Amino acid sequence: MTEELKYFSLAHELNEEFKTFLAKNKVHFRPSLNSLSLISISEEKPELGTKCSFKKYNSANNIQVLIEADIEKINIKAEPQRPTPEKYLQALIISYALKNNYELPFDKNIKFISSEIAVKNNVGKKIVTDILGFNESNNQLYIIELKYDRQEKRLIEQVNNFENVINERPDFFSELLSIHGFKSTSGIPPTIAKLVVWPHEKTSPKIKLKTENIVEITFHSDYSFQNFN
């Protein structure tokens, strides 16, 4: 395993081992290239989190005690003073996935891998996607962007930038899939699918998204989802 994926591996191990306890406390572990964080998926404090010590979590005998201490750090943080609709949407989707065998609420065939993944491209710039998912049935790696407003140009730019990173760094993403127990069909590298989740409007589905091969998922006021695939 490469050094930069050690946080992804540990986060997945912790999320699996303490799945019930984490769900009860509405948190989950989120990795990045250089750190590990415990993140809230509660309605009150969506996406608030605290950084965790890799050294402690990687060697402790009683990890639940560490988790409880980091949960308390989140609990004493103030709730957001202004609405954070995108963060609420993200927390809602992740919470559902962690309670339903990693299935995403708008497509049970897409399994949640991680969120807020930032990967360096060939020129050293970090490129981020909101959620990364994988569909084993069709061997597709999903780049998923969440928007609470319909910024079409910005969305297309974001998903295309992350698509480029996946194409630049196939070994990184192959190893990431392996960490999560996914195997590409017959050893064939996965194809890339791009998807947006944003508010429903009469203009859906957007023609421009179809021409860019971006799947459109809309959500209604009750957070039910509509798939325009």
Structure summarized in a few sentences:
The protein is built from 8 helices and 10 strands. The protein has 229 residues and is an alpha+beta fold. The strands form 2 sheets. Strands 4-5-6-7-8-9-10 form a 7-stranded mixed sheet, with helices on both faces. Strands 1-2-3 form a 3-stranded antiparallel sheet, with helices on both faces.
* Corresponding CATH architecture of the largest domain: 3-Layer(aba) Sandwich
Cross-sheet strand order for the largest sheet = 4-5-6-7-8-9-10
Q: What distance lies between the first and last C-alpha atoms, to the nearest angstrom?
A: 35 Å
Q: How many β-strand runs?
A: 10
Mean pLDDT: 92
- Rounded to the nearest angstrom, the radius of gyration is 17 Å
In N-to-C order, the SSE pattern is HHEEEHHHEEEEHHEHEE
Structural class of the secondary structure composition?
alpha+beta
**What is the helix content?**
25-40%
Write down the overall geometry: globular
Report the portion of residues in β strands: 25-35%
User: Given this structure, which CATH class of the largest domain is correct?
Assistant: Alpha Beta
* Structural domain count: 2
Number of helical segments with 4 or more residues: 8
Low-confidence stretches: none
CATH topology of the largest domain: Trna Endonuclease, Chain: A, domain 1
Largest sheet geometry? 7 strands, mixed
